[in-house]
Specification:
alpha+beta
Length: 225
């Protein structure tokens, strides 16, 4: 992977995380800052372990989970490594901020996608993008499963997983709007408790995609998606 491609990938994650607040001047949360430095298909296990305090991490043979809470803000993430190579294969990050009468949620998934899924004879790019979304949703569930005995992680991951599942159901009901996924504003849908939410999909490299979902409370109308 060349330097320019790696820069584009990490830039996409950093931009997505910055836009969580709707204000690029906001100081990022601790895990948010760490995740913005992780590059899928490039960062290795040592890089990841050096980003977070040991006390905040849980481990399996090929993945790491982190959790942090301060005040009304909580965040969690799961980083999965390739089973054959030491590089990061996928990352999942969820942020939740609770204020009076307002819940703010942001979900970010960046993942390598299997070539066999991308090479299927799809009717069009919209169908291909929907298949990538379904893959990322299922992968998120599988990656988080070993850490769900930790109730704090389970609660946040569950919030992000459910929101993405609702978005996919809405896409199934509104197939003519799937094209919005790759637009600046993203695909808008109504969540039962988070109200209006937005979902977007970006292709960072040939087989690397980023999924970003945020509630309306985290979208600055002056900032493009």
């Amino acid at each position: 992977m060349n330097k320019q491609m790696r820069t584009m990938m990490i830039g996409g994650i950093a931009t997505g995380l910055i836009l969580v607040s709707g204000c690029s001047s906001r100081k990022p949360l601790p895990l948010e800052a760490g995740f913005s430095q992780i590059e899928v298909a490039h960062s290795n296990a040592t890089d990841v372990l050096n980003l977070f305090p040991e006390k905040e991490m849980l481990h399996t043979d090929h993945s790491v989970s982190v959790f942090h809470k301060k005040g009304w803000s909580s965040e969690t993430g799961v980083i999965t490594f390739d089973r054959q190579y030491p590089q990061v294969h996928r990352l999942v990050y969820v942020q939740h901020r609770s204020q009076i009468m307002t819940e703010k949620v942001f979900l970010l998934i960046q993942s390598q996608v299997p070539p066999e899924l991308l090479q299927q004879p799809y009717e069009n790019n919209d169908r291909k993008n929907l298949a990538v979304l379904r893959f990322c949703h299922e992968a998120m569930i599988a990656d988080a499963r070993p850490f769900l005995t930790d109730q704090r992680t389970e609660s946040l991951i569950g919030l992000g997983r459910t929101a993405l599942g609702i978005a996919i159901l809405q896409l199934d009901k509104r197939p003519r709007e799937i094209y919005k996924l790759t637009r600046e504003t993203g695909f808008d849908f109504d969540h039962p408790t988070l109200d209006k939410c937005y979902l977007g999909l970006k292709q960072d490299a040939e087989n690397i995609y980023t999924v970003a979902l945020r509630s309306k409370a985290m979208v600055d109308p002056l900032t493009t998606w």
